[in-house]
Amino acid sequence: MTACGTDYLTPGWTSRSYVLVYGIWVYFLPLLLIIYSYYFIMQAITAHEKNMREQAKKMNVASLRSSENQAQSVECKLAKIALMTISLWFMAWTPYLVINFASIFDMAKITPLGSIWGSVFAKANSIYNPVVYGISHPKYRAALIKTFPSLVCGGKDDLSDAQSSGTALSTVSEEKPVA
C-alpha cells in the first residue's frame, strides 16, 4: 500500500521507533508548545488588562474602555479562541496518532479506509485556524451573518455584537454615488 504517512505496517523495530519519535515530535511536542504559548499569551493579556485598570484608577476614571464588560470580554474571547484552537488541533491529530500507535503495537487491525480517515483529519487541521480566527473577528462574522443568516446559532447578543461591529462597513458599502 502506498501512502503519504508513516509505515505502521512493517513490524520491525525501526518502524516502531520511527512512529514513537514521530508521535513525540509531531504530536506531543507541538501540543505542549501550543498550550505553553497560549498560556503566556493569556498571561500577557491579563497583565495588560490589569495595567489598564491601574492606569484608570490613577486617572480617577472607572475604566479606560467604554465599558468594564468590554475588558472582561477581551479576555473571555481570547480564552475561547485558545480553547477552540487547542481542542481542534487535539481532535485533528489524535485519531492519526491512535491509528499509528494501535497498528505498530498490534493493538488493532486498521483498514486502509481507517488509515485514510486518520490522515484526512490530521491534514484538515491546516484549515481550522483560519476558520476559528475568521469567525471570531466581528467584521467577518457580521458579513457571514448578512450573507448566510441561517448559520446564526448564537443568541441575540452574538448577532447584535457582530452587527454593531460591522455597521460601518455595511453602511459604507450600501451608499451609491450621486451622478
TrEMBL record:
It is a multi-pass membrane protein. Coiled coil: none annotated. GO terms for molecular function: G protein-coupled receptor activity; photoreceptor activity. Signal peptide: none annotated. GO terms for cellular component: membrane. It comes from the Eukaryota. Gene3D superfamilies: Rhodopsin 7-helix transmembrane proteins. It is found in: Membrane. Residues 1-133 form the G-protein coupled receptors family 1 profile domain. Pfam families: 7tm_1 (PF00001). Keywords: Chromophore, G-protein coupled receptor, Glycoprotein, Membrane, Photoreceptor protein, Receptor, Retinal protein, Sensory transduction, Transducer, Transmembrane, Transmembrane helix, Vision. The chain crosses the membrane at residues 20-41, 81-105. GO terms for biological process: phototransduction; visual perception. Belongs to the G-protein coupled receptor 1 family. This is G-protein coupled receptors family 1 profile domain-containing protein.
